[in-house]
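Second attempt. The first submission of Aminoglycoside phosphotransferase domain-containing protein had a stray character pasted in from the spreadsheet, which I only caught after the job came back as garbage. Lesson logged: always re-copy from the clean sequence file. Corrected sequence (248 aa) follows.
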Amino acid sequence: MAEELLPGGRVNEVVRVGATVRRRPPERAAYTRRLLGFFERCGWSGAPRFLGTDDRGREVLGFVEGHVPWRIPRAPDVDADESLVRVAKLVREFHDLTAGTALAAGSEVACHNDLSPKNTVYRGPDGGRRPVAFIDWDAAAPGERVHDVAHACWQYAGLGPDGAGVAEAARRARLLCDAYGAIDRRRLIGTVLWWQDRCWRGIEAGAAAGDPAMAGLRESGAARAVREAWRWVDRHRGELEARLSDRR
Ligand SMILES: Nc1ncnc2c1ncn2[C@@H]1O[C@H](COP(=O)(O)OP(=O)(O)O)[C@@H](O)[C@H]1O
Ligand SMILES: [Mg+2]
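This time the job returned cleanly.
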């Protein structure tokens, strides 16, 4: 069957073959497979199914039909408040499913650790596409709820200089937190900064160590952009925190 290269991957070459997707197994493949298998047994449809490996050693995953907004500018549906709320609810769902299981491994939950629009499949009528699943579970690991929620706020709410400004980013982050529910919003901005710092340093370190994917990311300006986002959040931290914590 014909292989079609899928656009939007920045780290892996991902191809579609019929109703499946083939990609290089992630570094922590065993954990990701256990997690995807667990979601399948729970009947949770917010992640692709893990179907095995092919004769070339690639992972075979179920193709999730829909729109993946890997390019800027994004379709307006993606940034609609209703989509943000739906993202938060999907995150809450898989956190609640994994809480207290062996997949949380003594931490709170299993975290995705790379939640962003480009790792989300949106589906629905034109002008009303909503998130239905997260893809790219390569970085999944046991963690705290606030880790995923902060990463999601950074990526979906636009916490950086390319977003819609401090007030709007804070409003969107708050919407996401409120839709998620029980989260300590006081820890949010600090955790966003932790992620951004880790992310740009990780790209730089990987590129310096000769990892071609990280070198490519660095070349494309990704590390610089994340560093700029860190600076922006750090500069506006006081106002962001005030807007997030106020009880109105
Ligand atoms: N299970 C899937 N269903 C549908 N599309 C997928 C699936 N997995 C990957 N894709 C497509 O392939 C692209 C790259 O996949 P991804 O897993 O995000 O790779 P990378 O690790 O390089 O970011 C995505 O942007 C998406 O368009
Ligand atoms: Mg991806």
